[in-house]
Design a protein that fits this description.
Elements (H helix, E strand, L loop, with lengths): L1 H8 L2 H9 L5 H8 L7 H20 L13 H8 L6 H22 L5 H7 L6 H10 L12 H27 L10 E3 L2 E7 L8 E6 L5 E6 L3 H31 L1 H27 L4 E4 L7 E6 L2 H9 L8 E5 L5 E5 L6 H16 L7 E7 L3 E5 L12 H15 L3 H4 L5 H5 L6 H11 L15 E7 L8 H18 E7 L15 E9 L4 E8 L7 H7 L4 H11 L1 H82 L5 H18 L18 E4 L4 E5 L8 E6 L2 E6 L4 E2 L34 E3 L5 H14 L3 E5 L6 H12 L3 E6 L9 E6 L1
Parallel strand pairs: 5-9, 8-12, 8-13, 10-11, 11-12, 20-21
Antiparallel strand pairs: 1-2, 2-4, 3-4, 6-7, 6-9, 13-14, 15-16, 15-19, 16-17, 17-18, 21-23, 22-23
Helix pairs in contact: 2-3, 3-11, 4-11, 5-11, 6-8, 8-10, 9-10, 17-18, 19-20, 21-22, 23-24
């Protein structure tokens, strides 16, 4: 019962209503509107895999998967099994469903990397022979065709002959008795052919009156001369209907023979449509696929920029206000989170958003949060949100909360602690019962003890509990005590509890029990309004007196109220205010750093684009220069050829030869490439030269010339010092020429002894398997700082992301000279050896 109440409180049905609008078939919309919630994590992961594959498939296809022709044929299959006769429309719907399903399977089979969907359609039977038989017997108007049977074809030939005879006979009567006919037309009443006759002249055309106009001025008469033909036509129509029924019965029997396969086909198509519906809704929502984590394996709940899906819908379709996302990063040791803050600050919305996110992940929907989305699979989502008041049952707000919380504890199986016979209500009242009740609650009521891990006496249920205004509606002292006891009890029995409260005592639980965490909704004192942002690690402080003073309440009244509150409370509020200011400063600095990072990335992109543009221009210039050189060579060859032809014409004289020589010289000078400038030679410091020493930022005068080792003496001010050539430069930035010394003949050096081979031990081996890249970097940094020589890093194979992250980290580390894969005996590509300087 409490689970159905939770779905109602979280407005799950409203989300399903939004979801069903993305369905392609009527069956898919029906299932999406009443979406079942899985009871096992395996089933949830299967549904999530289906959604992922459809999402991947639709990203490749345009306009996506098509369910054209597929209809809800469930009622028709049931009628066929009960030996009923299907109509032409029902048979045609079965044929189009078979065709649409075959096309759907073909699209899936033609794609790769879709193991879940391919397995789903692997044993799908679409019976093309049944589809062809239906289309042979039933046309597009759902009528039985003439070709369905020879007998039916003969009957319809007879019908056309009879209708032709009747209409010809009536046409002759209309022409002969045109004065008595109201209109020159032939019509029907029922299955009888009649002509409209003026009422005063009904005796002119004797026959049977089948109908009269509203005014009585026109009678619709079947002349006696065609009555016998009309009777014959009616009998033939009956024969036609009987034969059509026989054909539809045969087709129905064929459908009934394969009904189990068709029902399975319908279920598979509905499953694919439901996965497509979830994929399209997730895409519209801008959601990302969740990964189910195991908090016992020290994995953290990570939900960044989490948005309420119903508020997103309201913003998009109903012009609602913008949705403020929340960040939920909950450590694995945290069992209870208490959220404090002002009313209308977003505390309840945070509860509902997390509850809907857990349910969406369970049914295979993506979660509207930024990647990565990591959260546990919750067996149950249980909530107490809002008031449960009833005048008929005389229930107050407090009573309504207690009744619902009792049902939550009952759903968690609270009777296991003190025996099966104790109900949820009795467990809730154990504080006022005898010694047995106090004994049972003793571990969770002693909230004055120091911080401990509080090991659970009972295995935690995989449940998420959401409590709104826990302990409210009664005396603050008793309500606070009850809230503390309840939250400590839930810390022992539920995987995660999120509770909102106004009680200041609950803020101290974090400092007494490490399983508790504080959070608060931010409040802007300047505008006296909440910002709807969730702040972690800082409890909300009371703003009632500040708000009252700014709203015009007399200062002396507020001052008196502050004395009643006490100095301790005021100091706590000041400490919290200081923490909030410090947090805002850090957020401002983080935002500025992020903006600087964005600017740097933008500048980097601009520089990269300019560099690419310059490179393109250089290539273009080089290509144009090559073309110009080729053209010049071709032109020079042409001019030389002209000179040679002139020499070949007639007998060349010495003068002609001299002219040819001059012409060739001019051509050579014209096309000779420009002499490249000589490389600039660096300067050599001389006595009296002024030089610059960049290391100390001084200019000095050279006193002695450089010796063979490149050393010389300089003076700046009253100081003299000896410097190296490599440490100075000229005043215009030139580096000095190095002094080249004659190398003496090298003395024979004995070969160095080979280094001792490194031995792999547990101390120089780091196992990173199963770790995330961020955690692996921290472990690697520590191992490298302690290492002396090689270290063996085990990262395994897997998807390769961890290996890539490890190699990227080693590449930029200053102490790592190089790295390489290990030998096959040491793990091969699954192990990397890093050499530490």
């Amino acid at each position: 019962m409490i689970q159905s109440e939770t779905l109602e409180l979280l407005e799950w049905q409203r989300l399903c209503q939004h979801l069903c609008t993305f369905a392609a078939t009527k069956l898919g919309a029906t299932v999406a509107r009443n979406l079942p919630i899985p009871t096992t994590q395996v089933e949830s992961e299967q549904l999530l895999a289906q959604t992922k594959e459809v999402y991947q498939l639709e990203s490749r296809l345009f306009p996506g998967l098509s369910f054209e022709g597929i209809q809800d044929i469930g009622d028709s299959l049931e009628r066929a099994e009960l030996q009923g006769i299907l109509t032409g429309e029902e048979l045609l719907a079965i044929a189009t469903t078979l065709s649409g399903t075959r096309n759907l399977r073909r699209v899936i089979d033609n794609q790769e990397d879709l193991p879940v969907l391919k397995e789903l359609v692997s044993d799908l039977r679409t019976y093309p022979e049944l589809e062809q038989e239906i289309h042979r017997c039933i046309d597009e108007r759902a009528q039985v065709t003439d070709r369905a049977s020879q007998k039916l074809g003969e009957i319809r030939v007879e019908l056309r002959r009879l209708r032709s005879q009747i209409t010809q006979k009536l046409q002759n009567i209309i022409q002969a008795k045109s004065g008595a006919v109201q209109e020159q037309l032939i019509t029907q009443r029922g299955d009888r052919y009649v002509i409209p006759v003026k009422a005063p002249q009904k005796d002119a055309i004797p026959g049977i009156v089948h109908d009269t106009s509203m005014s009585g001025a026109t009678l619709y008469i079947e002349p006696h001369s065609i009555v016998s033909m009309g009777n014959q036509l009616r009998q033939t129509i009956r024969r036609e209907q009987a034969e059509e029924e026989v054909i539809r019965r045969i087709l129905t029997e064929q459908v009934a023979a394969v009904t189990p396969d068709l029902e399975r086909l319908l279920a598979i198509v509905t499953t694919i449509d439901l996965a497509t519906t979830k994929s399209r809704y997730s895409f519209w929502l801008g959601a990302n696929p969740p990964r189910f984590i195991d908090r016992q394996q020290t994995e953290m709940i990570t939900l960044r920029q989490l948005r309420h899906p119903l508020l997103v819908w309201q913003q998009q379709h109903e012009q609602g206000s913008s949705v403020v996302p929340v960040d939920l990063l909950i450590s694995p040791n945290i069992k209870v989170v208490t959220i404090t803050g002002p009313n209308t600050g977003g505390k309840t919305v945070t509860l509902k958003t997390l509850g809907l996110a857990a349910l969406m992940a369970k049914v295979g929907l993506f979660v509207p949060a930024r990647e990565p989305v990591e959260m546990p699979w919750f067996e149950q989502v249980l909530a107490d949100i809002g008031d449960e008041q009833s005048l008929q049952q005389s229930l107050s707000t407090f009573s309504g909360h207690i009744r619902r919380i009792s049902r939550i504890l009952e759903a968690l199986g609270t009777g296991e602690a003190g025996g099966r016979g104790q109900g949820a209500g009795e467990a809730g009242e154990a504080g006022e019962a005898g010694e047995e009740g106090r004994e049972e609650l003793s571990p969770i009521t002693n909230h004055q003890s120091p911080i401990t891990s509080h090991p659970s006496p009972i295995t935690h249920h995989q449940s998420l509990v959401l409590l709104d205004e826990v302990g409210a509606g009664t005396d603050p002292v008793e309500g606070s005590a009850l809230a503390i006891a309840l939250l400590k009890y839930l810390a022992n029995h539920a995987q995660l509890t999120i509770a909102t409260t106004h009680f200041g005592e609950l803020k101290a639980l974090k400092y007494e029990d490490e399983r508790f965490e504080n959070a608060s909704v931010e409040f802007d004192e300047t505008t006296l309004s909440p910002t709807y942002r969730l702040l972690w690690g800082i409890p909300g402080r009371s703003n009632a007196l500040t708000i009252a003073l700014r709203l015009g309440l007399k200062p002396e009244v507020v001052a008196e109220a502050k004395t009643q509150v006490g100095e301790a409370t005021d100091e706590v509020n000041q400490v919290i205010a200081g923490l909030e200011q410090q947090r805002r400063r850090q957020e401002t600095k983080a935002a500025e750093a992020q903006e600087l990072l964005r600017q740097a990335e933008r500048l980097y992109q601009e520089v990269s684009q300019k560099a690419a543009s310059l490179e393109e221009r250089e290539q273009s210039l080089r290509a144009s220069q090559e073309i110009a050189v080729q053209n010049a060579i071709a032109q020079a060859k042409g001019e030389i050829a002209q000179v040679i032809r002139r020499l070949q014409q007639g007998t060349p004289s010495a003068q002609d030869a001299q002219q040819a020589t001059n012409s060739l010289t001019q051509i050579a000078q014209k096309y000779e490439p420009a002499t490249p400038p000589k490389a600039k030679i660096g300067f050599i410091p001389k006595v009296g030269d002024r030089i610059r020493i960049p290391k100390i930022g001084q200019t000095a005068e050279v006193i002695t010339p450089p010796d063979t080792d490149g050393e010389f003496t300089v003076r700046f001010g009253i100081m003299k010092m000896t410097v190296q050539l490599a440490d100075v430069e000229s005043l215009d930035g030139q580096k000095p020429e190095p002094i080249v010394k004659a190398k003496p003949a090298p003395a024979p050096v004995p070969p160095p002894a080979p280094p001792a081979p490194a031995i792999r031990t547990s101390k120089n081996t780091v196992d990173l398997r199963g770790k995330r890249v961020a955690d692996a970097e921290y472990i690697l940094d520590k191992a490298i700082s302690e290492a002396d020589g090689q270290i063996w890093i085990i990262h395994g194979y897997g998807t390769g992301k961890l290996k890539q992250g490890v190699h990227a980290y080693l590449q930029q580390h200053s102490r790592v000279s190089h790295y390489e894969p290990a030998e096959r005996a040491d793990g091969g590509a699954g192990v990397t050896i890093a050499y530490v300087k």
